[in-house]
Amino acid sequence: MSFREKIVWAAFVTTLLVWGGYFVVVVLKIMNGAGHDPSLFWLFVGGTVAQAAMMAAVAAISALMAPGDAKAAPDERDRLLGQRASGVAYFVILVAIAAVIFWLHVGLRGTNVIFALIGVFILGETVRFGTKAIGYRMAG
Amino acid sequence: MTKPRIVNQIRLLRFMADEMTQAELGERIGLTRQTVAAIEAGKYSPTLEAAFRIAQVFGKPIDDVFQWEG
Question: By CB neighbour count within 10 A (0-12 exposed, 13-18 middle, 19+ buried), where does A102 fall?
């Protein structure tokens, strides 16, 4: 597995774990009528820091194990997989934004709008990383 | 999975070129070892430029390196 593929898989898994956990907490809080809880802001900050730390650790360990691989510039296959993944993610984001807009007209209000938009962003990134990771596996 | 329509002789040519490694070939044409492996396995079709570079490394016409079986 190349350095770049390891990074993509790490990004995919950490995004699912960190932000999956974040949204479980958010949904539970909203269901209990505590959607305005300030602790959710710190949970967001903590999630961001946690994911950044995990990614830095994976990148550092992978670079130490294969320094030549880590220094290599992205080649045409890396760029192609990235472009394809971005295209798929863009389509998913469009659909998700449309869903949020519809939801706004049927009752989505206040801070829930912010959570929905964060969710759209995280969904897009998850799809992008996942599509790229699967692309690496299918394309050798 | 459908059978790849473009086949290549890169592995054989590497062996004949003093057992050149995938990494060495990749370095000479600006691709990673993993991309060279993917090309050899028929899982990735290189750009035209990359295909010409590969042929140039082995000193062969591109038809001797890549064949279309469509």
Answer: exposed
B21 touches chain A (CB under 8 A): no
Q: How many CB pairs under 8 A join A and B?
A: 37
In angstroms, the separation between the Cα of residue B13 and the nearest Cα of chain A is: 20
Q: How far apart are CA A54 and CA A6, in angstroms?
A: 13
Smallest CA–CA distance, residue A132 to chain B, in Å, is 14
At A71, list the tokens: 């220094």
Q: What is the dihedral of CA B53, A70, A132, A86, to 10 degrees?
A: -80
Instruction: Tell me if A139 and B46 make a contact (CB, 8 A cut-off).
Output: no
Give the separation between CA B7 and CA B69, rounded to whole angstroms. Answer: 7
pTM of the model: 0.87
Residue B25 reports pLDDT greater than 80: yes
d(CA A109, CA A101): 11
A77 and B44 Cβ atoms separated by less than 8 Å: yes
Q: What residues of chain B lie within 8 A of the CB of A69, using their CB?
A: 32-33
- ipTM rounded to 2 decimals: 0.85
For residue A29, give the 3-state DSSP assignment: helix
Q: Where are the beta strands (DSSP E) in chain B?
A: 6-8, 66-68
